[in-house]
Amino acid sequence: MIKKVLLLTTIVALCFNTSYVSFATTLTPAQAIEESKVKYEQLDDTITTLNSEISKLNIEIEGINYKLNATNTEIEETGLQIKLINSQIEEAKADIEKNQEILDKRIRSMYESNTNTDMLIYIMTSDNLLDAFNRVYSMSKIVSLDKQMINEINEKSAFLIKGADDLNKNQSDLNILKTSALKDLASVNEKQSTQQESLNELNSQKANVASIIEANEEKLISHALSIINLDSSTSLELTSAISTLKSLIAQISSDYVLDLANTAILDGQAKIDAIEIENSKNAVINNNNSSTTNNNNNSGNGNSTSGDGEYLATYAMSATAYTGGTITAYGFKPVRDPNGISTISVDPSVIPLGSKVLIPGYGYAIASDTGGAIKGNIIDLYLNSHEECVSWGRQNVTLHLIALPGTW
Question: Can you tell me which residues the record assigns to a coiled coil (predicted)?
Fold first, then answer.
């Protein structure tokens, strides 16, 4: 009962958070993203707990069903035994009635013929002493057999009645056990149904949060996509856009956005190939045109945000390091890629979330995470292990802001 109350409280709290995120217009984008991250992780933890509880209930249901099946089998076997013993009781009753009828006739005959006198006459009319002894023995044998018959009838009758009583009691106990098992099964099924409904609700909320994360990821690659989709993009611009997409793929979790990125990479490469073929044709026709094309491409290189000395801003930062976690404040997977783009945690009021930065000694990174202790000119660099974080400690670094969100 306590678990159920806690579960319902959690669900209500999460639902309340959903409403707040949806309607609170005073939240900044960074705050909204941070709340999405916290809520997503809360939902994930609650869903994991519920899945564990449902798995336990499934095992419990299997155990109850196993006991129930065994009880049903035992009830059926007991029923067959009761039928058998009832049949034996009926046969015994028939034997008892038959033997009782024989005894009744014999007693009636003895009464009508004054057996005591007849027995005395029977003995007195013996031919000799041996014959007399034989007649006495015969008479005693008849009496003994009659007594034995009566005892056997009584014993058999008592045995069958006791057996029937025991089986009936056993069947009654089994029926009680079956009723109890069915009650337990109904209770567990109801609990499972309630938790499954809660799980479905939480998964629905998680899907809503995931859609926010997907929108953030799509926004992150939108500039690179626009460069590739633009017919007038130069080969250098296309190469830069493809490089950006490849470096971001490791941080993207949405299948839809991954498909967009991979498709754009293929399209961009196809455009580069087409430009190179066209440039080769022009070089054969006119070397001057080729030179002009090369100059234009060099001009494109100067305007790129590759970080060749032209930065939007440069900051002196105090950098710590962290590891672990499954999702950043911006909704991405945290990544450490020395040859690509890594993840760092920033103060969004200083470095906007989604910005591309360069940190000498660490490499290129995306500002996609936040933290309670990350304020002002303090940043947190993502590394792959706790040992690396300890080794890094706290260092003073330079951060170059290369591009703002939606411009790279």
Answer: 33-106, 185-219
In this structure, is residue 57 part of a structural domain?
yes
For tokens 């999405």, name the residue.
36
With residue 144 as reference, give the H or E element that holds it.
helix 129-229
Q: Of the residues 199, 219, 239, which one is the last residue of a structural domain? A: 219
Name the packing angle between helices 235-248 and 255-285 (round to 10°).
Answer: 160
**Which tokens in the block code for residue 299?**
């001009």
With a CB cutoff of 8 Å and minimum separation 6, the contacts of 80 are: none
Q: What gap in Å lies between CA 2 and CA 351, rounded to an integer?
A: 45
Same domain flag for 92 and 119: yes
Asked whether residue 308 is domain-assigned, the answer is: no
Q: Could you say which of 200, 219, 238 is where a domain stops?
A: 219
Q: Both tokens of residue 89?
A: 């009781």
* Whole-number Å distance between alpha carbons of 311 and 313: 5
- Bridge partners for 395 per DSSP: 319
Give the C-alpha separation, 328 to 336, whole Å: 13
User: What per-residue confidence (pLDDT) applies to 301?
Assistant: 36
**Amino acid code (one letter) for 6:** L
d(CA 383, CA 380) in angstroms, rounded, equals 9
- List the domain range (segments joined by +) for residue 215: 1-219
The pLDDT tens digits of the residues spanning 88-134 come to 777 777 777 777 777 667 666 655 555 555 556 656 676 776 766 67
In angstroms, the Cα distances linking 376 to 177, 235, 243, 302, 350 are 68, 39, 30, 31, 6
CATH of the domain at 318: 2.40.40.10
Q: What is the pTM for the complete model shown?
A: 0.49
Contacts with 112 (C-beta within 8 Å, 6 or more apart), sequence order: none
Task: Enumerate residues 6+ apart whose C-beta is below 8 A from 235.
Answer: 272, 275, 276, 279, 297
Q: Do 190 and 59 meet the contact criterion of CB atoms below 8 Å apart?
A: no
What domain count does the chain have? 3
Q: Is position 225 within any domain? A: no
State whether 350 and 321 are in the same domain: yes
Say if residue 281 is in the same domain as residue 343: no
Across all residues in the chain, what is the average pLDDT? 77
